[in-house]
Each structure stands twice: as structure tokens, then as C-alpha cells.
Amino acid sequence: MSMPKRKLGAHGPEVGAIGFGCMSFAGFFGAADDETSLETLAAVEAAGIDFWDTANIYGMGHSERIVGQYLKETGAEVTLATKVGIVPGPPRSFDNSEDYIRAELESSLEKLHRDKVELYYIHRRAQEVPIEILAETMGKLIQEGLIDAWGLSEVAPATIRRAHKVVPVTAVQNEYSLWTRQPELGVIQTCEELGIAFIPFSPLARGALGVSDLDPSQFQDHDFRRVNPRFVEPNWSENLDYIHAFRAYAEKKGVTAPALALAWVLHQGDHLIPIPGTRTSTHLHDWAKAASIGLSEDDLWDLEQILPVGWAAGDRYSDAQLLGIERYC
Description:
It contains 10 helices and 11 strands. It is α/β, with parallel strands linked by helices. The protein has a domain at 5-207 and 265-290: TIM Barrel (Alpha-Beta Barrel), CATH 3.20.20.100. Helix 1 packs across helix 2 (62-74) and helix 4 (131-143) crosses helix 5. The longest helix has 19 residues, at 235-253. The chain is globular, with a radius of gyration of 19 Å.
């Protein structure tokens, strides 16, 4: 399937306008099995999605192993991103030291069956390491050919600027969707100004903007959303009222709700490359053609009325989940 292309940063490669997040393969949003995950990756490749995102922390390397297995077995050519910096707990902590980053990168490359990755993110910034020192570490990895470029996740505009002055940042990854719009308060603009790709994760609101209602009472114990404030009552019932109105509008337009939600994200700037994720190819087909959906000024106005800024009840993370996130507003 043909997929429109966008630049992964001012000096990066062209990739599909829609990428793919592989977090779900580790069971963060319900049980996942390897056979289904591999089938999903085949559907992702067939859809023309060639920018894949994983992390060493997803299932303690399980997501990377699944991606690596698929790449080894099929020879698929994709632009690959993985992440480092979160140390599993309890208690959860963060490590941005050069020794830790190098050791984790070696482990990730082994799982991915790669000699290098095109993009290596700092998953969370460890505040005790000056961002300039961290940038220098990433610059060494680039010079050594172990990574092509580096990025940051869940950081403030000031951090992006400081890092970019030392070693140019290629991509910044933060949560962004119709129900999480904080990046509009500086991150999106900073990335555009500096020629950095902005990579929205969870652009479908962690499944909330899907084709049917989620039932939080059925979430498994290890499901990330089980303690997420937006999925806990009374917040969830309040949020459903808005979601139903949005879904009705999408139906009126003849598209699915997730495709419309993703089209809205794509419309926010040519430097945005969202990375929705899914455990199954069925859900993939719900939004895979979102890049072909045009939105008029009237459509955008309608969406602002249906889902006004700040409509979601509850914080996007619980207090424990917020650990390591840079706040700037």
C-alpha cells in the first residue's frame, strides 16, 4: 500500500507519514502473543508503514525481540527507533550515564539483529546528568556508527533547545492526541523551528478513540490503563460522552473514529509523524488509511466544538506514571 512520506527531521530519511509503536507487543494494554504480534507486523509492512518504534523497557526486551525476529525472518527494510534510560524497579529510576547507555544499546542491537539503529531515544531524562553531557554521549554513538541519530522523549522545550545546540536532535517523542494537547504549548513549535520531527505517541488516546467502547472493568491487572486516571470512574463515564459524540461525527463523515483522530494529528504539521500501536491487524485496518483523509477548516472547527481543548477528565498519567516526565506549563 502506498503511504505518503514525511521527513524524519530536517536531515533525516523520508519515512511513512504514519509510523508504528510496538509497545503493545509487551502486553501493556492486555495479553499479547508472539504469533499474533508477528502477523501484525506483516500487516504493518503491507500497509506501507516503514518507521517502527520500540524500547528496551517494553516487556524487558520482549518487544525488541519480536521486532528483531520479524526483521531477521523477512528481511523487511524499516527505519527503526528504540529507546533507553528507564531502569525497571521497584522503585523505577533513570540512568543517562554513558556506560549504561552503551550497554543497553549493545543489548538492544543484539535483540533487533542490527548493527545499528536509525534513531535512538533517551526514554526519560535523568536530571542529575546535564543535558549537554548526555548530548555528547549520543554524539559519540553517532560518530561510531552505532546510531544514525538521536532523540528525546517526554521533555520540555528548554531541554530540547539545550540539547540541540550540542548535537542536533532528530526527533522528540511526547504523548499527543485529541485528548492530550500539552505539546501545543511549546514542544511542537520548538521542533518545527529547529527542524526536528515531532513523534506523537498514543495518538489514539490509548485506545479510547477506537471504533468501540473500552470497558475498564475488564482491563487485566498488568494493563497500563487500569490505574490511569482517565479510565477510572467517574472520569471514564464523563469521557465516554465526548467520545460518543466524536464517534458519531466520524461516522457522519464516513470514516472510523481512530482514522479521523489520526488524520487530525497529521493535520497539525508536516513535521509530525504519529506512531499508533495495536496488538492486532484488525485494529490496524481501522486507521491505516488515515493519511488519505482530508480535513477542511469546517471539519477542524467542528472537532474543536466536539472535543474542545482540555475536554478529557483526569490526568493523562497517575502520580506514579508521571515519574520522570518533564513538566513545563
